[in-house]
Amino acid sequence: MTQETDSQDSIIHELPPEISNKIAAGEVIQRPSSVVKELLDNAIDAGANQLKIIIQNAGRTLIQVVDNGCGMGKEDLRLCFKQHATSKIHDMDDLFRVRTLGFRGEAMASIASVAQVTLKTKRPGDDMGYKYEIWGGKEKSFEPAAVDIGTSVAIRNLFYNVRARRQFLKTDATEFRHILKTVQQAALANPELGFELIADTDSIYDLPAEQPLKERVAQMFGKSYKASLIEFEEETSYLSVRGILADPKLTKRSRGEQFLFVNGRPFQHRYLTHVILNIYDTWTGEKEYPFYAIFLSVDPSQVDVNVHPAKEEVKFEDERGVIKLTKSVVKKALNEQFLVPEVPTSQGRSSRSGGFSSDFSFGGTTQKSTPKKKPVKFPSRINFDQSKSKPKGEGQGFSRQLYSFDEQSERRKQEEQGGKDTPPERMGERGFWQLHNCYILTQTRSGLCMIDQYAAHKRIVYEKALSATEEAIPSTQQLLFAQNIEFSASDFSLLEELHPILKRMGFNVQLLSGNTAMISGVPADIDVGDEHSVLKAMLHQYRELDGKVELDERKKLAIAFASKTAIPKGKKLTDMEMENLLDQLFACDEPYKDPLNKPTLEYIPLEDIEARFR
């Protein structure tokens, strides 16, 4: 009596399987392209090397995937349509080291609940295959059949029993575009497999197996891509990054040709995509999107692919390290191709190592892909100042010590040329030309690069100053005689506020009474005798930045320091100085903009130059 009463009062009940499967289908099968993805995943996991995809009415009428994989036996046919039935997961540990594309056991049950499914399969060595039909989750037929080795899955009338879902599908063009993107992802991730895509009797793709990635991209996206693709690869013990980038001139006004993969699985990552597109900003305009396909390989235990119902997102254990390495490798590949000039030395070899090496710390271990080039110390503006008369060898500035600059030999060279200034076309024997003592011009593989020497050096000094504030021991050169500097009340108050950061940058300043400070040491790049003007100019610049940019005190002070000490426009540089300036610029984290986001360089494609002479 009590049990019956309790049963009548209960408001919670189990859903029938046909309803629960349709609910699951709402998460896993969102549109026809979701079905294509699940069927391709299963075919690839089955070891197929040839896949055929047939589409009718953008997947509304028919989605069929035929493969020559391992097939299934009679016992597995019904099981594959059971919810949470899978051949790829055996225990909890398998869930955290997934090596297959499909693994949850939800896809086929979800598809079968909202479509009319016909599956034909045969294993190698079996005399007979089988045909199985299931409509809306209910079995229709199960019989032996004469079929080829592999599996053929035909999905007809998707969402035929869920009218609301079918009505929410977009136009045929939109739905087919999603299907096309899904096939493109699979074909790019598996160039060793052959893919054929047929849509309404039209052959869209017929991609052969064992096709080089460059050829596959050209065949899929157009012949114009083939000559403009950049392949790259970088590997550490934790992560491998390889891929292919397109010339920035092949950008399009809409997204759709940006591909990310991890362990062969396509995934979406909003921030990583943002980082990569930012690297392209130097060459592309607003709302222009380049083609790229980037493949990450990482131990499956270091990445969680089970964080999204449709497996579109992943979670890395060391996400920051993955993004940092990927960013550096992409930047290096583009720099080598378009911006970093190949400058012949007197020995006939390139003076550049082709970019900069990447050092990264994963889990406390630093991995080096290539030996790191020791950076050349570039002089500050003050080191260039030769206006003061000083005995040879005393306070001559770092530029002379580093480059052995000889004014007499330079003057003698000009006298031999009739006392005239060296013409621009004769200046750049090492591949650099200085325009109006303000801009550095250099040839790249595909055009002309113009560098603003002041903005470029400001970026270098800024990053160096910022890095100095993070070091345990600041780099300081002690003055032979300490100097007392008197400040205004407002400047002294600001000096007190910034004193800890200035100390980490290398300024050894002692605050005295009466708005006076004693300076006994300065950063190593500053010439002795100019510390007074540098420090006051920094405080003035800092105050100007204070109300204009949303940055922390450390960054604003580094900008102020760089603005004061960077080489100015109008300063003549030697070839060696220009070369070292570019070397250090491209070794910066953000070489394309100065600390206030103004461009450090401009790139002019050869096509644009040629157009001016037509």
Automatic annotation (TrEMBL):
A GO molecular-function annotation: endonuclease activity
Pfam families membership: DNA_mis_repair, HATPase_c_3, MutL_C
Gene that specifies this protein: mutL
Assigned protein family: Belongs to the DNA mismatch repair MutL/HexB family.
Lineage start: Bacteria, Pseudomonadati, Balneolota, Balneolia, Balneolales
UniProt-recorded name of the protein: DNA mismatch repair protein MutL
Domain annotation DNA mismatch repair protein S5: ranges: 217-335
Region (Disordered) location: 344-428
Source organism of this protein record: Fodinibius salsisoli
Chain intervals with Basic and acidic residues compositional bias: 408-428
